[in-house]
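Project outcomes to date are best conveyed with an example. Our students and postdoctoral researchers have been running inverse folding experiments weekly, and each run begins with a structure described purely in tokens. The record below, which covers 356 residues, was selected by the lab manager from last quarter's runs and is presented without edits.
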């Protein structure tokens, strides 16, 4: 049988293991006179093990990204690009290093792309719209789950939509998976970001775009997630799950939960992991047995989710959320097949939001 599967994508180089951030010198391109790197680092990591592990030169730029405040936006990325160009009088960095969660790593990726492509980052939200390769970039997750270290997208908030810059040029050239960095993550956030990985695996496995190779990654990642959240798995397992779940998604797609979750993030400003948890909890009819496992994990970790989260939204807010969901054509095709519009109607989407 002829296969229509795309070319399988993976980050070409990675270093794995607790303490491995100290080996970053083996991955960065060597500098000549006048060269500099840009570090984009989650500001919760200030004055910690991250700074101790890096040897930042005075010529380098360090941008502390306030990931705790909000998910990154196209405006922030455009401003950061302009700031780098201004400060260095147009000289490009040799390398960009993004250290943090999905939010901060995505800023690093988007900056890399936007230093080499004209206009606003808004223009590149979508699939394969980036013409020029970006600056060489390295990703370092400091919280596990998003799989952004493995993915070919940089997800950004726009005026009325949350959307990724999906492109081969959005992939890191190298990553470092150092589980010592995730030790400081607070329990609730650990759970929500970890569930993002669990949901990536479920959506990948239950979707129509899966093949045996991507299934291998998702199956293993799901098993590791369950060991971490239902057994006594360790941080290296969670880092591995996050990465493998990400690889699986790059080579398949997300599904109904992500399509609904983006609506919650734009209207209620819910963070990705949390929004996913709220949405997944009402998706029994699509992901039945996995939703049951999810509820077990909620219980085990004593996590309380808000209820009736959409009850105070007016019609126009609800319509914006439904519009956002309907824009997620690829995930919905993956989840429900080519005929998804007949299955996931506006009324059905509204009904699901009102259940959350
Ligand atoms: P995040 O980057 O949004 O961070 C969540 C919180 O954890 C923030 O407050 C952050 O400061 C904190 N944090 C990070 N590292 C920490 C540490 N070591 N100790 C203490 N606190 C720490 O979280 P995330 O779940 O990794 O990423 C979600 C974001 O990634 C969303 O913006 C989402 O849209 C995006 N995302 C991208 C992809 C992709 O493939 N590019 C995939 C999934 C999600
Ligand atoms: Zn996700």
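After processing, the design step wrote out the following sequence:
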């Amino acid at each position: 049988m002829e296969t229509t599967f795309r070319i399988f994508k993976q980050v070409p180089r990675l270093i794995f293991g607790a303490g491995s951030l100290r080996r970053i010198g083996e991955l960065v391109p060597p500098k000549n006179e006048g060269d500099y790197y840009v570090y984009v680092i989650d500001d919760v990591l200030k004055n910690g093990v991250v700074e101790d592990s890096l040897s930042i030169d005075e010529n380098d730029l360090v941008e502390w990204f306030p990931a705790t405040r909000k998910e990154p936006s196209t405006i922030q990325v455009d401003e950061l690009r302009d700031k780098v160009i201004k400060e260095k009088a147009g000289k490009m960095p040799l390398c960009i290093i993004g250290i943090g969660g999905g939010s901060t790593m995505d800023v690093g990726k988007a900056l890399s792309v936007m230093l080499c492509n004209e206009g606003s980052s808004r223009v590149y939200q979508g699939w394969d719209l980036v013409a020029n390769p970006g600056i060489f970039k390295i990703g370092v997750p400091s919280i596990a789950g998003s799989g952004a270290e493995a993915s070919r997208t940089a997800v950004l908030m726009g005026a009325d939509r949350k959307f990724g810059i999906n492109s081969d040029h959005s992939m890191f050239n190298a990553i470092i998976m150092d589980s010592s960095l995730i030790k400081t993550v607070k329990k609730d956030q650990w759970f929500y970001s970890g569930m993002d990985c669990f949901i990536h695996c479920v959506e990948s496995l239950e979707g129509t775009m899966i093949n045996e190779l991507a299934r291998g990654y998702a199956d293993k990642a799901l098993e590791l997630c369950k060991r971490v959240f239902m057994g006594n798995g360790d941080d290296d397992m969670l880092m591995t799950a996050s990465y493998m779940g990400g690889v699986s998604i790059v080579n398949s797609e997300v599904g109904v939960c992500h399509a609904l979750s983006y609506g919650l993030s734009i209207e209620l400003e819910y963070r990705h992991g949390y929004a996913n948890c709220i949405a997944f909890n009402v998706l029994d009819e699509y992901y039945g047995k996995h939703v049951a496992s999810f509820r077990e994990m909620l219980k085990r970790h004593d996590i309380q989710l808000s209820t009736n989260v959409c009850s105070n939204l007016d019609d126009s807010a609800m319509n914006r959320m439904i519009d956002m969901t309907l824009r997620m054509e690829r995930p919905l095709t993956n989840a429900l097949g080519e005929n998804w519009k007949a299955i996931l109607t506006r009324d059905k989407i509204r009904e699901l939001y009102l259940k959350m």
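The mean pLDDT is 96. The chain has two domains: 13-184, 187-355. The training component of this project remains on track.
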